[in-house]
Amino acid sequence: MKDLVQKIIAWAEEKTLLNISYTKTHALKLVSEFGEICRSIRNSQDCRDDIGDTLIVLIILAATSNYIIDECINEKIDHNFLVSGDDPRSVLIELGLYLGIISDSVIKGLIFNEEIGYMVAGLKKISEMQGSSLRECLEISYHEIKDRNGILLDGCFIKDTDESYQGAQAILKNRESKVEP
Q1: pTM of the prediction?
Q2: Domain segments of the chain: what residues?
């Protein structure tokens, strides 16, 4: 898992995503990706890619915040969740609590590395409930993004296949023309 995490960090560095000023943008992306897991679980769909995408955002958020990644992202992590049983919806509801704490901490400039660990543990639990593993989910997502091209606008990576790509390019071009003497 460590090798895969390092590849993701290298990808994020290449795309210039590891900037502390992008922490709020990454937190919003985390909320969005978490919503994708919830949607997939609610609709009884495969959520491995959604879990992997959420984990990628957690890795980037941890790296951006200068947390020691291995302490936050550890496949052997096993936090005791308050929920019992084998219902992924219960785990998701509990993860919503940690997502809220992370969001609040980002806004207030507080430390949230422990909550990242709880999120990872919950994602691990959900992946196992789905007959998968955290590593498999992360591999699926990494293979989808590793060759992705796009641009960075206000800390948000916009894929070149996204419908908002041309508009984002125009915004960046306009900003560049205002900077030139």
Answers
A1: 0.87
A2: 2-147, 149-181
